[in-house]
């Protein structure tokens, strides 16, 4: 199955398609609201997609909520002068039913129990970290292909990764000699106010070596030195490791997006964690 398409609606950006069985309003242009709400609902009906997921400024949320969207998470200071909210519209009840809710609650409880304990961020001497560039695209695509059976965006395509870099996504990687063994990225918002910490992958043979913690610290340093104030992640709710990583790194849990993302072979719920950097 092909990945979902990135489209422009007015001056806003959406991802739409059967792969994630959803519309994702990735970036809302202020001039497109509130009319865009009815437009994307009509698009979801026309394509028979079961969910709409929107990341918008809180000041733009009222019309979404009045049209049946539900607030599932909130992140302070995500936008310049405004908080961010994650809203979902479910066209079918099955899309919000979580058969693994008890396990997801256990994952979150374990993560919360580790809050603020800190992550190991010193790498073994055999490993080197650096900012990645277009010349690393093939190695990145290979690592992501090893790590994820499916992914909501085509990160196993080197051309997509190069385009992401060109669009300002910051990739960090850890090498052992010429072998890429870990990577992650920061997707910086167009207003420069926030960054999503994402695309974490570590070769299974190199886990428990502090690679994910080192990558997170390096991305945080890179972002905060650029003046970015709000850091957040959309993490797989079923993963003990990734949720504990952010909890230990002093991120706060904000909410859960039900059955939101096609990753590792199925639709999974995702947890929102955030950190606001004090000036």
From TrEMBL:
Domain (N-acetyltransferase): residue spans on this chain: 127-273
Alphabetized SUPFAM superfamilies for the sequence: Acyl-CoA N-acyltransferases (Nat)
CDD domains cross-referenced by the UniProt entry: NAT_SF (cd04301)
Xref: PROSITE patterns: GNAT
Swiss-Prot/TrEMBL keywords: Transferase
Superkingdom: Bacteria
Recorded GO MF terms: N-acetyltransferase activity
Name assigned to this protein: GCN5-related N-acetyltransferase
Taxonomic lineage of the native organism: Bacteria, Pseudomonadati, Thermodesulfobacteriota, Desulfovibrionia, Desulfovibrionales
């Amino acid at each position: 199955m092909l990945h979902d398409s990135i489209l422009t609606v007015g001056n806003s950006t959406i991802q739409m398609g059967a792969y994630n069985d959803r519309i994702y309003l990735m970036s809302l242009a202020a001039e497109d609201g509130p009319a865009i709400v009815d437009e994307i609902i009509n698009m979801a009906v026309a394509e028979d997609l079961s969910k709409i997921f929107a990341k918008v400024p809180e000041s733009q949320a009222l019309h979404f909520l009045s049209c049946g969207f539900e607030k599932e998470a909130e992140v302070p200071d995500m936008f310049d002068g405004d908080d961010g909210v994650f809203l979902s519209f479910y066209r079918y009840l099955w899309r919000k039913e979580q058969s693994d809710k008890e396990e997801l609650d256990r994952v979150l409880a374990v993560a919360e129990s580790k809050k603020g304990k800190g992550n190991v961020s010193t790498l073994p001497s055999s490993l080197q970290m650096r900012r990645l560039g277009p010349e690393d695209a093939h190695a990145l695509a290979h690592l992501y292909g090893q790590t994820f059976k499916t992914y909501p965006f085509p990160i196993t395509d080197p051309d997509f990764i190069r385009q992401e870099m060109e669009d300002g996504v910051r990739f960090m990687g850890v090498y052992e000699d010429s072998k890429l063994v870990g990577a992650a990225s920061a997707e910086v918002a167009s207003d420069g106010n926030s960054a999503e910490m994402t695309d974490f992958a570590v070769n299974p043979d190199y886990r428990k070596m502090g690679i994910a913690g080192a990558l997170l610290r390096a991305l945080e340093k890179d972002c905060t030195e650029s003046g970015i104030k709000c850091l957040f992640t959309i993490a797989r709710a079923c993963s003990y490791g990734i949720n504990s990583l952010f909890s230990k790194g002093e991120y706060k849990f904000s909410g859960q997006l039900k059955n939101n993302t096609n990753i590792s072979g199925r639709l999974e719920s995702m947890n929102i964690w955030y950190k606001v950097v004090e000036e």
